From TrEMBL:
Coiled coil: none
Keyword annotations from UniProtKB, A to Z: Membrane, Signal, Transmembrane, Transmembrane helix
Protein's cellular compartments: Endomembrane system
One of the Pfam families matching this protein, by short name: DUF1218
Superkingdom: Eukaryota
Protein name: Uncharacterized protein
Tagged with keyword Zinc: no
Length: 189
């Protein structure tokens, strides 16, 4: 199946928005703390049932799909025509937005995974030998922050895709119909 840049951008945007939505819901559903139940030499934490861990992992999964699709969409041979990667990376704007998209994707992944894994650990290890435990949950705000950075990442992938599309058009304009350089274009090294 042949994809167009519009289809790829729609996929990136859709999964980016889904990652954002699930991350925000995970942040809002996370309980502030559990209920400590004192026992003989231990404290057992009782946490209310909440979908934070599942929503956190879903948000991360949609971030990965959005980022991988965004990355692949930059180098996809649209209409069967591929462009050398060197031609893309010569465009300074593309290079900047490409690196920002990679960086925000990594930051969003860290901000989504860290509290999700910590929350899963708290829910799994309910017995504490410290009698003064307050039954903590993951740090508040990280999932929400990760959700916003995830949305930013998708937007940066979209900007990089637009810049790649412009570079691709310029590259093929410089080429003749048969792939040879046109007489009007003089490449200097």
């Amino acid at each position: 199946m042949a994809f167009t840049t519009k289809q790829m951008s729609l996929i990136v945007a859709t999964f980016g928005v889904l990652s954002f939505i699930f991350g925000v819901i995970a942040e809002n559903k996370k309980p502030p703390s559990g209920t400590p139940i004192p026992g003989k030499g231990v404290v057992i934490c009782n946490y209310p049932s909440d979908p934070t861990v599942v929503l956190g992992y879903l948000s991360f999964a949609f971030l990965v799909v959005s980022s991988v699709t965004g990355f692949l969409s930059l180098f996809y041979p649209y209409q069967g025509k591929s462009i050398p990667q060197a031609a893309l990376f010569q465009n300074t704007s593309f290079l900047v937005f490409f690196n920002i998209a990679l960086g925000t994707a990594g930051l969003a992944a860290a901000l989504l995974l860290w509290p999700t894994i910590v929350e899963q650990g708290h829910l799994s290890n309910r017995v504490h030998h410290n009698s003064e435990t307050t039954c903590p949950t993951a740090k508040t705000g990280l999932l929400g922050g990760g959700a916003f950075v995830s949305l930013d990442s998708a937007l940066f992938w979209l900007v990089a895709l637009m810049l790649a599309d412009n570079t691709r058009e310029d590259y093929f304009e410089e080429k003749g119909i048969d792939g040879k350089l046109s007489n009007e274009v003089v490449l200097s090294s």
